[in-house]
Here is the input.
Amino acid sequence: MFEPGFFSSQPVHVALIVGGITAVVSAVAGVFTVLRGQSFAGHSLADVSTAGGSGAVLLGMSPLTGFISGGLIGAAAMDLFGIQRVRGRDLATGIVLGASIGLAALFLFLDTSAGAETGATQQILFGSIFTIDSSTVPIVAIFGSASLAVMAAIYRPLLLSSMSSDVAAARGVPVRLVGLLFILALALAVGLSALSIGAILSTALLIGPAAAALRVTRRVGLSIAVACVIGVGATWLGVLLAYDSYYWGSSRRGLPVSFFIVGVTFLAYVASGLPVFHALVDRRPDTAAPDAGER
Amino acid sequence: MPVSDDVPDGKAPAEQAGLMFSSFMANAWLTATIVAVIAGVVGFFVVLRGSAFPAHAIPNGAFAGAAAANVIGVNGLLGLGVCAVLAALGIGWLGRGGRRDVATALALVMLLALGAVFLSVSGQYEPEIYSLLFGEVLGVSTSEILPVAVLGLACLAAVMFLYRPLMLATIVPEIAEGKGVRSQQMEIAFLVLLAVATAMTLPVVGALLIFSLMIGPPAAARSFTSRPSLAVLLSVGLALATVWIAIASSYESNWPIGFFVGMLSALSYGLGRAWAAWKRTRSTRLGTA
Amino acid sequence: MTDARWRHGTGNGVLDVEGISVTFAGRRVLDGVSFKIGAGELTGLIGANGAGKTTLLRVILGLQRPNGGRVLVEGAPLTRLGRSIGYVPQKVQLDPDMPVRARDLVALGIDGHRFGVPLPSKTRRATVDEMLHAVGAERFADARVGTLSGGEQQRVLIAQALISRPRLLLLDEPLANLDPGSTQEIIGLLHEIASHQQVAVLLSAHDMNPLLPVMDRVVYIAGGRAASGRTDEVIRTEVLSALYGHHVEVLHVGGRVLVVAGLGTNEDHCLPVETPREVG
Here is the structure.
C-alpha cells in the first residue's frame, strides 16, 4: 500500500502539510459557498486565479502570488459587478470567468513561448504538489490562517445572511460587507488550493467535501468538521496514490495528484447520498438534508 | 500551441493579409462560421434559461472525450460528441432535486481531471491540452468539415423542432405543465442539445471558452431588442463578428484564439449592459414609463 | 346540493367534478368534492389558504391524480390532447431582461405545446391582436413581459389562456397580488369573458367579497369538503358550519360578507376561520 520511501520523502512531507492546510481552509469556505448557492462564483474565482497564476509566471513571480492576488482582484470585481444581487448574477459570473480564462490562455501562451517555464500549463492548471518548495509552507500557513480567521470572525452574521439575507438585514447585519469579506476569504482559499491541485480543479476541494458533508448532516458546525475530514482525507489519499502510481506498470510515470484528489472527492459526494452515512454521522433524523439550499 | 509552424512571418502586411484568406485558412473560416451560428442560436436559450454554468461544464465532457479518443485512437469528433452527451445526462441526473449547481461544479472538475489524465497517459500532454482547452485556429482538418457541418445542421434542426415547447417551458413552466410539456424532459433535451453543440464547436474555440461565445453575444442581443426572433438573429450576428475578429487577430498576432473570444464576448456583454443602462436613463429623463 | 339555476340554466355542463378525493401524506385534503359548471358562468372557488383550492384546480387540469372520483370536461374524461382548458397559474416569475414581448407570450398560447417553429402569418398576427384588444392589453403589447405590472401581467396571461378558444378557463388566485383598482378591472374583464364569450370561468380566491357582484355560482371549500350553488344558498351559517365541522357565523356587514368563528356559543375550540379583509 505504501510504496518505499513514502514516509521519508521530503516532497511528500511538504505535499501532505500544504495539502492538509489548503484542504481544511477549502472545506470551511466550501460549506458556506454551498449554503449560499455560490458554487458557480467559487468556481469562477478558481479560473480567475488561473489568470493570476499564469500572469505571475510571466512576470517571473511565484504562481502562488498570482493565484492569491488574482483571486482577490476577481473577488472584488465580482462584488463590484453585483454578484450579490440574484438577477443576472450567473451571467455576470460567466462573463468574468470567460474573460479570465481568455487572459489565462494568453499568459500561458506567452509563458511557454518565452521559454521561461516548461510545463507551465500543467503546473498552473493542474497543480504541482510534489514540487512545492518547503519555504512556501509558512506562507501557506499564514494565508490559510488569515482566511480561517476572517470566516471565524464573521461566522454568525455570515450564517444568518446565508440563510436569509432579509432577516439578517432586519437584524442589523451588514449583509453586503459580510458578503464581500466572505468572498475575499473564499478567494484566499481557492488561491491556496490552486497550489496543490491546480487552479481549475480547486473547485473539487472547495465544493466536494462540503457538499458531501451537507448531505449527511444539516448542522453547520458538524458539517464543517465532516467536510474537513473528507477534504484532508481525500488530499492525503491522493498524495499517497499519486506517489504509488509511479510504481504501477513499467513506465515510471505517475498519474497526477490532482486527478486522484478530484476522483476521491467526487466519489465521496456520490457516496454521501447513501442513507448509511447520514445515520453514521448524525443521529438526529430531523437533520437529514434532502437537498442542500441551492438558490 | 496555436498556429502551426508553417505560418509565414516577416512578409509585407498586404501579403500577409492575403495569406489569411488563402486556402489553408479556409477551413478555419468555414468552421468558425458554422460554430458561431450554432453558438448564437443555442446561446439564445442558454441565456434565456439561465444555464451559464452547465454551458461551462458540459464542454469539459467533450474535452475528456477528446482526450480519451486520443488515447484509444478513435475518431475525435465521435468521441467528443458521445462524451459530451454522457456528461450532459450525468449532470442532469446528479443535479435532480435542487442540487444543480453543486452537481454541475463537481461533474465539471471530474471531467477535466479525467481528460487531463488521459492526456498525460497518451504522452501528448502539453500542446494537446492547450489547444483542446483554449482553442486552435487550424484545429479542424478538411476531412472534418463535413461532419461538423452535418452536426451543425442537426443542431439547428433540433432547435427548430424544440422551439415552441422549449420557449413555453422556459418562460412559463406552470402553464407548460398544464399543456403537457414537462420541464424535466425539456431540460434533458436542452442539455443534450447543448452537448452536441459544444462538441462540434470545441476544436476551434476550445473547451474552456466555447461557453463564453454562448453567453456574451446572446446577452448583448437581448439588451438590444425585445423580439425573440430578432434576438436570435442578433445573437448569431454578434457571434459571427466575434469569431471572425478572433480568427483574424489570432492569425495576425499569433496569440491564442481563445483569448480573443473571451475578451470579445465580455465586450459584447458590456456593450449590451451599457445600452440597457443608457435606455433606462433616457426614458426616465423623458418621463416615459 | 340542489341548484335550481343549474337545472334551468345554460344546460350544457362544461365542467363536471364528481366526488374528487385527494390524500396527501395521510391527510385528506379533498373529500368527495362535487360540482358542475356551465358555459357562460363565472364561479368562485372560495376557501382559506391551504384549503385545497390549488389542489382541486390541479386535479381538473390533470396534473394531480385524485384518489377517488372523476372529472369530466364537456362530458368526456380528461385527456392530455384535445383538452379545451385555459389556465392562468398563481405565480409566474418573469425575468425583466427576457426578450419576450407580451404579444409573444400570448402567441405561445395558440400552439406553444406543439413542436416546431411558428410560421408568421397574417391570421396569426390578427388573432393575437384581437385577443390583446379583448383583454385591454394593446397598450403594452410590445413591452417585455417581465417589465409589466401585476395587473398588466394578469391581462396578458388571461389572453394567453383564452387564445386557444377554450370552453373552460381556470385561474388560480388571480386577484392575490393586485391593488384594489386592478382587482376591479380584472373582475370586470372576467365577467365579460364569461358572459360574452360563453366561457365557463372558474377562479379561486380566499376572499369572496370582490366577486360578489359577478359570481354566478360559488364553490366553498372547507375541511376538505365543498358546497356549491348560488351565493345566497351556500354562504349561510348552517351550510358553512356543516362544512367546517364547527359553528361559524355568516355576517353581512355593509354589503360585505364575513365568515367568523362562532359568536355567543359554547364552542371550546373556535378557530378563526376567516379574517375580515379590507377591500378598498
Chain A touches chain B through 53 residues (CB under 8 Å). The radius of gyration of chain A is 19 Å. Confidence is low (pLDDT under 50) at residues 287-295 of chain A.
